Amino acid sequence: MDLTKLEEKAARMTPDQLTGIYVRLDDQGAALRKEQKLIDAKLEVVSKLLLKKLWDLGQTQFTSRTAGKTVFQSDRNTFRVLDREALTDFILADPENRINLLEARASKDAVENFTVNFNKGELPPGLERNTIVSLNVRKARRK
Q1: Helix (H, G, I), strand (E, B) or coil at 62
Q2: What is the pLDDT of residues 8-25, one digit of tens each?
Q3: Distance (Å, rounded) from C-alpha 40 to C-alpha 32?
Q4: What is the DSSP letter of 44?
Q5: Which of 2, 49, 74, 118 has its C-alpha lying 20 to 30 A from 138's C-alpha?
Q6: How distant is the alpha carbon of residue 92 from its chain centre?
Q7: What is the C-alpha separation between 108 and 115, in angstroms, rounded?
Q8: pLDDT tens string 24-39
Q9: How far apart are CA 43 and CA 40, in angstroms?
Q10: How does strand 69-72 pair with strand 61-64?
Q11: How far apart are CA 88 and CA 102, in angstroms?
């Protein structure tokens, strides 16, 4: 059933009927996610083997004649703060040239705590609150 037909049919259903459809679709999604996890695990194993083969051959890429694809090594750097105080001191020693070493992101838990406990429910300057409303469905408790 396409989405348009589903919407038209669902508009005439009771909440109980809609919940039944939701649960069936959620179960189908869970089965697909489980299958996807297995596929991802297999891909991870094959990726590691391919990378090892590349390294064993002393190459960073090769073209597969049978698959018609090019396989290549891709490098990506990540950085982790090991000493927050040392990094802060370094940046503050020359903020004009070093402030861009950081990315700004508010800590959800810290902002909520500060707002409720120290700032009379007001957000600190420069922040905006976005609330995402979602639906949760759980199995009913049996009495």
Answers
A1: strand
A2: 888 999 999 999 999 999
A3: 12
A4: H
A5: 2
A6: 32
A7: 10
A8: 999 999 999 999 999 9
A9: 5
A10: antiparallel
A11: 10
Tokens of residue 10, six digits: 């669902």
Query: 3-state class of 64 per DSSP?
Result: strand
Give the span between the Cα atoms of 50 and 18, in whole angstroms. Answer: 47
Q: Cβ(18)–Cβ(135) under 8 Å?
A: no
Q: Which two three-digit tokens encode residue 26? A: 């959620």
Size (the chain), residues: 143
| Residue 66 DSSP code | T
Give this prediction's pTM. Answer: 0.63
Pick the closest to residue 62 from 50, 53, 72, 52 (CA basis).
72
Q: How many helical (H) and strand (E) elements, i.e. helices and strands, does the chain have?
A: 5, 2
pLDDT in tens, 93-141: 999 999 999 888 899 999 999 999 988 889 999 999 999 988 888 877 7
